[in-house]
Specification:
- The complex is a heterodimer of chains A (321) and B (333).
- Chain A has 321 residues and is α/β, with parallel strands linked by helices.
- Chain A has a single domain, classed as 3-Layer(aba) Sandwich (Rossmann fold), CATH 3.40.50.
- Chain A is built from eleven helices and twelve strands.
- Chain A has an eight-stranded mixed sheet with strand order 6-7-8-3-9-10-12-11, sandwiched between helices. In chain A, strands 2-1-4-5 form a four-stranded antiparallel sheet, with helices on one face.
- In chain A, helix 3 runs parallel beside helix 5 (150-162) and helix 5 runs parallel beside helix 6.
- The longest helix of chain A is centred in the middle third of the chain and has 18 residues, at 180-197.
- Chain A starts with 5 loop residues before the first strand and ends with a helix.
- The model of chain A has no long low-confidence stretch (mean pLDDT 92).
- Chain B folds into two domains: 6-229, P-loop containing nucleotide triphosphate hydrolases (Rossmann fold); 256-332, no CATH class.
- Chain B is 32% helix and 25% strand.
- Chain B has eleven helices and 14 strands.
- The mean pLDDT of chain B is 93.
- The chains are: A alpha/beta (321), B alpha/beta (333).
- The structure holds adenosine-5'-triphosphate, adenosine-5'-diphosphate, iron/sulfur cluster and magnesium ion (MG) (2 copies).
- One magnesium ion is lined by residues 48-49, 172 of chain A.
- Residues 48-49, 172 of chain A line the site of one magnesium ion (MG).
- Chain A: Keywords: ATP-binding, Nucleotide-binding, Transport.
- Chain A: Its main location: membrane.
- Chain A: One of its GO terms (molecular function) is ATP hydrolysis activity.
Chain lengths: 321, 333
Amino acid sequence: MSNPILAVDGLTKRFGRPPAQVRAVEDVSFTVAPGEVVGLVGESGSGKSTIGRLALRLVDPTAGTILFDGQDVSTLPERRLTPLRRRAQMIFQDPYASLNPRLRVSGILGEALAAHGLARGRRRERMAELLDLVGLPPEHLDRFPHEFSGGQRQRIGIARALAVEPGLIVADEPVSALDVSVQAQVLNLLQDLRARLNLAMLFISHDLDVVELLCDRVVVLYLGRVMEIGPTAEVAARPRHPYTRALLAASPKADPDGARIARLLKGDIPSPIAPPSGCVFRTRCPLAVEACARDVPPMHEAGDGHRFACLRDASEMREAA
Amino acid sequence: MTEPLLSIEDLEVRFRTEDGEVAPVTGVDVSVAPGETVALVGESGSGKSVSSLAVMGLLPRPAGRVAKGRILYRTKAGETIDLAQASPDRVRRLRGAEIAMIFQEPMTSLNPVLTAGEQIAESVRLHLRLDRRGALRRAQEMLELVEIPAAAKRLHDYPHQMSGGMRQRVMIALAMACNPRLLIADEPTTALDVTIQAQILALIDRLRRETGMGVLFITHNLGVVAEVADRVAVMYAGRIVETGPVGDLFRHPRHPYTAGLLDSLPARATRGPDGRRHVRSIPGSLGRAAAIRDACAFAPRCDRVREECRRTAPPLEAIGVDRAARCLFWREM
Ligand SMILES: Nc1ncnc2c1ncn2[C@@H]1O[C@H](COP(=O)(O)OP(=O)(O)OP(=O)(O)O)[C@@H](O)[C@H]1O
Ligand SMILES: Nc1ncnc2c1ncn2[C@@H]1O[C@H](COP(=O)(O)OP(=O)(O)O)[C@@H](O)[C@H]1O
Ligand code: SF4
Ligand SMILES: [Mg+2]
Ligand SMILES: [Mg+2]
């Protein structure tokens, strides 16, 4: 396999100081190969966005390393991050808040090109190319963000990210705010772009169906920790961690003949300020035993890069599912 | 079939705005029978919330008004009244005593300076004429009813001290406190995580089964529809475009919009010639389709559109006993 474009190892991020310290990300390791799309899934507060921002060094890690194109960027000072800023870009959830309302589309794309001194002397042409790439006509260059629908705005956000020809895009819930018919358009666009531009993506979502569609591999997070990681189809078909199982069971399926309202996970997500000892999932886990409170479960291999962090034996889990 | 509790007929809602009058709802026909869950589904801006506010008599005044149609509600006393015509006072009393509503964001409908117990107690004191102690006891029962752990303690918590899921439970407790016969739930789980959403859906469903109340469940999520609904009403650009029992409608949609929505689901993606999975999307967006009056409002996005569609506004046509579609060519679907 080719060298990863992104490799994080032991990545940890804590906000604030004890006793009110938030453990947003704890000991997270995974890689993204060039052209590969890796999904980060998990419920609110599981650390998805923080990992995305760490990967782009928009925040500093508390511990752990971030290798970008093989170079350790985890402690580089801001002035030396320019190459990273060009090779990696972000797309946001809210297509309304992420575009400057006072700039025309040409201004928004122009800013991105100018920041890295790109397409000098042929900017307008390059901007039209970028719009074409995301399926918008060149006339739209002269419009303001408020003149577009949510889906169109998200296309403009994608065009801006593509302006610098990045190798990696961190997409933080890019379709979550869109209606399903428009969401489908943007998902298809992302599929096309990754194929045409050999883009790698860290794709953040809480929608497992979307992740299954787009991602080669998936990282399942709970309270800042990796519960399970592996090829998406494999994890979806044979989840080995009880949290992944619960998450899959709880996501509503648009199948009126399927079983209604699945087996429920009890209780709320605990506070990230005082996460449970041992396995962070144990307070809601249907399979928890005493040992789960003692030790942080190590990663178990399930083959083919499929790993899960659970003390219980997989065969016992099968019965409970 | 049981006589409906609520039946909305040909509803039109208008708003006065700075740019003149707008009509975001122009053709809503929905009924809810006791004990039944009817899902009102559609994309954002299609008019779901405006329709439900019209039922509740909560349209912003004086800008908003019901311009046409009837909202027939059968009261506990067996009387049928048109909520669109009834006095605001009459509607307000029914809202406290027979019809309840829950919203997406409980924070905006809970009072931030009252504890969970105090809000529920205040409401039951008004509606059930209980004294202070009786009301507080009732409040605790209500928190237990919605499965809030350690309810006696949680009684004294303020909304900001609770998680989103807990707040939604408190709002449901508040809604259930008056023993409603009709519950209108406007995207009650949209802001919640899936595991918490599953808990809340199960809770609403349990309460429906136990009390026999009718539920009008508003959502944009087809997965949620499949889980909760007995019948479905699909809304587009201010109109109901299709209704039917959930199984029939999902298996055999009669309106191109419903078919398109179902095909847009990532779970229904198919593998393309490039080996990648693609979803069939509906081109374009809702935009200003609500303003289209003399044509099919879906025509600009419809893959079956013909000349007639741009000249005639299709009526909502009954198909057999319990289905209807607003498409000139539903027979060909
Ligand atoms: N700047 C910050 N200061 C303090 N705490 C923070 C900060 N940013 C994030 N957190 C906390 O870190 C944890 C992880 O947050 P993060 O935003 O990464 O979650 P997420 O998985 O993206 O959630 P969501 O699905 O809600 O977007 C949360 O408990 C959050 O409150
Ligand atoms: N107070 C108001 N004045 C004018 N237009 C409104 C008002 N409230 C809602 N609308 C418009 O009505 C349409 C339907 O809105 P809404 O019912 O909230 O949609 P949904 O709940 O289906 O997302 C939208 O175009 C919205 O902008
Ligand atoms: S009436 Fe015509 S445009 Fe409208 S949904 Fe039917 S086929 Fe499509
Ligand atoms: Mg986030
Ligand atoms: Mg709404």
